[in-house]
Amino acid sequence: MSLIPQQLVEIADKYGSPLYVYNTQSIENQFKKLSSAFKDVNVRFFYACKALSNINILKFLYSIGSNLDCVSINEVKLGLMAGFSAEQIIYTPNCVDFSEIEACKDLGVHINIDNISILEQFGNKFGNSYPVCIRINPHIMAGGNMKISTGHIDSKFGISIHQLRHIQRVVKSTGLVINGLHMHTGSEIKDIDVFIRSLEILLDIAHDFPDLTFLDLGSGFKVPYQEGDYTTDLETLANRIKETFDIFESTEKRHFEIWFEPGKFLVSESGYFITKANVIKQTTATTFVGVNSGFNHLIRPMFYDSYHKISNISAPHGTERIYTVVGNLCETDTFAWDRKINEVHEGDYLVFHNAGAYGFEMGSSFNSRCRPAEVLFHQGQAHLIRKREEAEDLLSKQVDCNLF
Fold first, then answer.
1. Are 92 and 110 contacting, i.e. CB atoms less than 8 angstroms apart?
2. What global pTM score does this model have?
3. Which of 159, 175, 204, 234 could form a disulfide with 127 if both were Cys (CB 3.0 to 4.6 A apart)?
4. What secondary structure letter does DSSP report for 194?
């Protein structure tokens, strides 16, 4: 269920703008879609909290039955604070110091290792006392943008499938217990064959790991950003995974759980980013709408060339005009070129749709502009879940040495 313009206007009037708003009903609906599609598969879902890690979001996902995927020790700590048990958390770091991995081991979570050097260090120190998962790089190009493709030959993520012999030597020499194999090829995956190829690769190398209990296929489920966008066919994917597993289990007599790590899929459509039109600027070629935000609050359009639908919620039935929507930074920060939007006047609220994933999470205080507030819309009520930053917050960690 989407929030209507009037609801968003009322929330913006109360809490100010720019402002992030998240609708729990949307998150729950997405989680139910996954659960329904995979009802006949032995599956667990781990929310990839790098998409949106506000503790209220984590608590809500815990309440509806999700597990948690973390990429840093602080995400792990947030997950534990939100109520997840260590067994419900998988930690998949990349290029971190070994001490962070040790700290997460001490917290008791599942650990996913994607580097032979780290695998060897872990095995030498802990031997068979603590099972780990291994992240494999299958050399599969997938995803909607090179910047979000993580399984190709030049990716920093995972241990190359061609280094399997090296992995085997480390496991044999250290006594490591490998309880899971992991693969994540990218985000915005349209072709479900990517998941099936990944699964077939993992099943093929599973023969070398007798202690496996799960195979983790990451995520990358496609969500629609504009009308007519392709979305991942979850039902077909689930059926094909079940077929593949049925064949494997009937011949090999081994049974594994399948794990997925949806992030964007669960929270993207729940999010609305509300801005205010500061100026309407007419040039010889373009009509600009300059809003009270920039890529410091929503970097995806500049970073990924991503599309976000933009609506004028102050005048939802106005005549459409063509605008280029830009931000207020001392930097080129264009949200949209030549976009049809209902006629905008200075002071109108513009909302960016599908802003729940990697919006606030990738924000910054560039230009010394403060981060926005966050609001959670739950059971018909709006709740403030993060206060708007103020100038004092920009100085809170700075140290004035009184040198001048």
1. no
2. 0.94
3. 175
4. H
Answer whether residue 155 is part of any domain.
Answer: yes
The three-class DSSP label of residue 126 is helix
Q: Are 342 and 260 in contact (CB under 8 A)?
A: no
Query: Which amino acid is residue 314, in one-letter code?
Result: S
Question: Which stretch of DSSP H or E encloses residue 283?
Answer: none
Three-state DSSP class for residue 159 = strand
pLDDT tens, 169-214? 999 999 999 999 998 776 677 778 888 888 898 999 998 999 999 9
Residues 164 and 301 in one domain: no
d(CA 308, CA 342): 15
Q: Are residues 167 and 312 in the same domain?
A: no
Q: How far is CA 219 from CA 188, 192, 325, in A?
A: 9, 11, 32
Q: Beta-carbon neighbour count of residue 9 at 10 Å?
A: 17
Other CB atoms within a 10 A radius of the CB of residue 294 amount to 26
Which residues span the domain enclosing 237? 92-262
CATH number (domain holding residue 329) = 2.40.37.10
Residue 209 tokens read as 């790991």
**Does residue 104 have an active-site annotation?**
no
Amino acid at site 218: G
Which among 376, 323, 383, 366 has a CA at the least distance from the CA of 348?
323
DSSP 370: P
Q: Which amino acid is at 179?
A: N
Res 142: pLDDT: 47
Determine which one of 133, 330, 370, 401 is catalytic: 330
* Domain membership flag for residue 30: no
Q: For the chain, what is the domain count? A: 2
